[in-house]
Automatic annotation (TrEMBL), chain A:
Protein name: LSM complex subunit LSm2
UniProt GO molecular function: RNA binding
Pfam family, one: LSM
UniProt source species: Penicillium olsonii
General function of this protein: Component of LSm protein complexes, which are involved in RNA processing and may function in a chaperone-like manner.
Automatic annotation (TrEMBL), chain B:
Annotated Pro residues bias: 33-44
PANTHER family the record matches: LSM1, U6 SNRNA-ASSOCIATED SM-LIKE PROTEIN LSM1
Record organism: Penicillium olsonii
GO molecular function, one term: mRNA binding
Localization in the cell: Cytoplasm; Cytoplasm, P-body
Quaternary structure (record): Component of the heptameric LSM1-LSM7 complex that forms a seven-membered ring structure with a donut shape. Interacts with SLBP; interaction with SLBP occurs when histone mRNA is being rapidly degraded during the S phase. LSm subunits form a heteromer with a donut shape.
Lineage: Eukaryota, Fungi, Dikarya, Ascomycota, Pezizomycotina
Keywords: Cytoplasm, mRNA processing, mRNA splicing, Phosphoprotein, Ribonucleoprotein, RNA-binding
Cellular component, GO annotation: Lsm1-7-Pat1 complex; P-body; ribonucleoprotein complex
Alphabetical GO biological process terms: deadenylation-dependent decapping of nuclear-transcribed mRNA; mRNA processing; RNA splicing
Main location: cytoplasm
Full protein name: U6 snRNA-associated Sm-like protein LSm1
Region called Disordered, residue ranges: 1-45
Length: 98, 178
């Protein structure tokens, strides 16, 4: 749930998503759901020559299971807060497992 | 749309339905302290569901890309929470080299796990096909595609063998392609 909440705080930011088949798409993050499916607006494909079929696409829905990386704007991420949150989440999980 | 804050107590985001929304109630990034007055307004949690994302795309002309590299163009008519989809008036577009061809296919029911992405076709730009691409008869494109596939499979096999000799397990052996 942590990363779901985290991505929700990034809505309306410009992100670059790399898929597992190496295609990279930049766009405005519009929405995310519990599976980390992502909706992007005003997309731009970084290597359009290789992927001509996306030339007329303006916004898209990407299934969470095919995402490799999400590149985020550095200025919009509070790294300290995120580190704390991940540690707290890990401690909670460890507590539950015991 | 307004930005969300890390604190998640939904101040102005009352769920419309009475059903429990447990997965949203808990604040995963920290204890939900009292929302500072005048903090950023928040979007209702029901905005962040698969259903809300797919609802916008229903009855629109979409490009559907499948895990095996197929590109289908059609109208999204129905779906569920796993992104299982129903497509109507589907056309499969195959690309090879600088050529492409359209094959009418009809109605598709697609199991969600095979979906890579759904792109909404901008109807104003739909006919702006890049000048490097030419439409060709299906047989010609299909033949060219088969040759390309065979070449790629050979290259993949070679890379796979080399990686395996070094102790790496390749992420996918060229199975996912656009």
């Amino acid at each position: 749930m942590l990363f779901f909440s985290f991505f929700k705080t990034l809505t309306n930011q410009t992100v670059t998503i790399e898929l597992k088949n190496d295609i990279r798409i930049r766009g405005t993050l519009k929405s995310v759901d519990q599976y980390l499916n992502i909706k992007l607006d005003d997309i731009e494909v970084l290597d359009l020559v290789k992927y001509p079929h996306l030339s007329s696409v303006k916004n898209m829905f990407i299934r969470g299971s095919v995402v490799r990386y999400v590149m985020l704007p550095r200025s919009e991420v509070d790294v300290g807060l995120l580190e704390d949150a991940t540690r707290r989440e890990a401690a909670n999980q460890a507590g539950k497992a015991r | 749309m307004e930005r969300l804050s890390l604190n998640e107590s939904p101040a102005n985001a009352q769920p419309r339905s009475p059903r429990p929304q447990n997965q949203f109630a808990q604040n995963a990034l920290g204890p939900a302290g009292p929302q500072p007055t005048g903090g950023p307004p928040q979007l209702p949690p029901q905005m962040f569901t698969t259903a809300a994302q797919l609802l916008d795309l229903t009855d629109k002309k979409l490009v559907l890309i499948l895990r095996d590299g197929r590109k289908l163009i059609g109208v999204l008519r129905s779906w569920d929470q796993f992104a299982n989809l129903v497509f109507q008036e589907t056309v499969e577009r195959i690309y090879a080299g600088q050529l492409y061809a359209d094959v009418p296919r009809g109605i598709f029911i697609v199991r969600g796990e095979n979906v890579l992405l759904l792109g909404e076709v901008d109807l104003d730009r739909e006919d702006d096909i890049p000048p490097t691409l030419t439409k060709a008869p299906f047989e010609e494109v299909f033949e060219l595609k088969k040759q390309e596939e065979n070449k790629r499979k050979k290259g993949d096999k070679k890379r796979y063998d080399e990686l395996q000799a070094l102790g790496f397990e390749p992420e996918h052996s060229g199975e996912i392609l656009f």
